[in-house]
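Ticket reopened. Same input as before:
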Amino acid sequence: MSAALSASGQGARVTVIEGAPRLGRKILASGNGRCNLANAGEPRYYGEAAWALQVFSACPVTQVLAFFEELGLVAVEEAGGRIYPGCGQAAAVLDVLRAEIERRHIPVICEAPVAKLCQTSSGFRADTPKGSFAASRTIVACGGMAGGKLGHDGKAYQLLTGLGHTLIFPRPALTQIEAEKRAVKGLSGLRLPARLTLCEGKRPVSAAQGEVLFTDYGVSGVCAMQLSRDAEEMLAKGKQPTLYIDFSPMLGIIPRVYDRVPAQDPEKNLPAVRACIEKRRHILPPEGILTGLAPRLLSEKLRGLTAEQTARALAAYPVPITGVRGFEHAQVTSGGIACREFSPATLESSLCPGLYCAGEMLNVDGDCGGFNLQFAFATGILAGKHAAE
Ligand SMILES: Cc1cc2nc3c(=O)[nH]c(=O)nc-3n(C[C@H](O)[C@H](O)[C@H](O)COP(=O)(O)OP(=O)(O)OC[C@H]3O[C@@H](n4cnc5c(N)ncnc54)[C@H](O)[C@@H]3O)c2cc1C
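Engineering reply: fixed in the latest deploy. New output:
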């Protein structure tokens, strides 16, 4: 949609071909229904991240916000640079995009999944069940495989691999973590502030802090999802990742933070947690040492441990990771079409002039916090602008 509006703003005659019954369904599901549409902080991207930074030099967050302001959207910045519609409704983002598409009479052909994209003597031809569409230039922005029915099944990549582009194997990212059952047994449903460190053995790889949610299959919550990408990569390489959960934010030992944090020794806060437990030993009986400090499910899980074992469990509770949940549960795809085959300034293919690509389809994925939609909008704005030149 941003590509179509950007191209039409330059005077191009545009048609949008959409496989689903309606445009922009993923926007409605984003940000827990609030749509975290961009992030004003430091960019946090993976895959071809250096290429993504070049995209943001050509189309910074201010330009994405100006684009939305012109459409009438009021956006507000919250903690961590996260940008949301002021009214707190994802529908507001979709509404302004759709209203402008309608106002400019841009034809939208829905329920027309493109099965094949061919190069012709005059440009491109897209074959769909509703007929074939020809254009001198084309922008492919089919998204990724994440989000269950809101994503595609992988076939959309063939539109570009069929024209010579390379596909980097797609994997689910920003998804829940599956763990050894015994580690999480009895904790399902607990939501606690914690600091998570992903380790290979005891070597810290990455860390995030926020609310961790225990489930019957493992752990969820934004901070766990932030680490799923690294965990998946380690598992794919045959390594055994372990998540160490430090409950220090719950104990009031370290401040509550909701974001990525630097990876450090997973037992760094053990001395402070030990001192906290030691102090309580003088006022509480051993079986009630965590009363008033930790929720009942966690206290019961740790019941019977010595004071030292309790301190260790609260400072670095080990959760061996067995897997990450698939595309159905993921928020974004890591992998995708190789960015190096497209110009980061114009999004035009270097293999196939007149062909452009934008959004999650490309081999770039970002952290939680608005980074993925911002990348989709920025690449769309640039692709539309240059395809129309
Ligand atoms: C539950 C959930 C919550 C999320 N929350 C956030 C958030 O708050 N902030 C954030 O930054 N990111 C979030 N994301 C990620 C973000 O929504 C995506 O990265 C972003 O929508 C990608 O935009 P896109 O235009 O590339 O792809 P999409 O939004 O997926 O759009 C691609 C479109 O192409 C269509 N299509 C696919 N194949 C074909 C075909 N062959 N022919 C024609 N049309 C086709 C699809 O139907 C779809 O309408 C979330 C994702 C999920 C699943």
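The radius of gyration is 24 Å. The chain has a mean pLDDT of 97. Please confirm and we'll close it.
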